[in-house]
Amino acid sequence: MEVKELSVPIKKGLNTGSKIKYSGVGNQGPDGVPQDVWFIVKDKPHALFQRNGSHLHTTIEISLAESIVGWRKEVRTICGRVLKVKGPRNTTDMWTTTFPDFGLPRSSDPSKRGDLIVEVDIKGPDHPGVA
């Protein structure tokens, strides 16, 4: 069996499930014709971000006290830039803010980016995750 090495270029903004076809580079089929090889793009899970198309979601934790009096936090983008987030007094669970153009490149136009959506998770006596 012959082994071939293929270089598969992954373009910016490709979505999970995108297919890349290499025609005629596979093993010969029953008819003696080399078959096509398909690669399917799959996202690798990230510790801080969840992908939704070109948009990225991340969650920051605040204390119950911070949720009552207001708060300020920093969020690092996927590219390493630090953004400042300011939350209002009486912030509720699932509060979100959006930073346009800080997500991933768009598949339709890689020169444009999706949004970074930051969600709050309040940790306190009446909230999960508090000991």
Number of helices: 1
**Sheet with most strands: strand arrangement:** 3-4-8-7
Find the CATH topology of the largest domain: HSP40/DNAj peptide-binding domain
**What does the average pLDDT come to?**
91
Query: Unreliable segments (pLDDT under 50, ≥5 consecutive)?
Result: none
Helix/strand/pairing class, anyone?
mainly beta
Number of strands: 8
Pfam families: DnaJ_C
Organism: Diplodia seriata
GO molecular function: protein-folding chaperone binding; unfolded protein binding
Protein name: DnaJ subfamily B member 4
Task: Itemize the secondary structure elements and their pairings.
Blueprint: E1 19-22, E2 37-40, E3 50-52, E4 55-63, H1 64-69, E5 71-76, E6 82-87, E7 96-99, E8 116-123
Output the keywords.
131 residues, DnaJ_C, chaperone, 34% strand, unfolded protein binding, HSP40/DNAj peptide-binding domain, 5% helix, HSP40/DnaJ_pept-bd, elongated, protein-folding chaperone binding, mainly beta, single chain
Describe, in plain words, how this protein is organized in 3D.
With 131 residues, this protein is mostly beta strands. The chain has two domains: 42 residues, no CATH class; 74 residues, HSP40/DNAj peptide-binding domain (Sandwich), CATH 2.60.260. The protein contains one helix and eight strands. The strands form three sheets. It has a four-stranded mixed sheet with strand order 3-4-8-7. β3 and β4 form a beta hairpin. The longest helix has 6 residues. The model has no long low-confidence stretch (mean pLDDT 91).
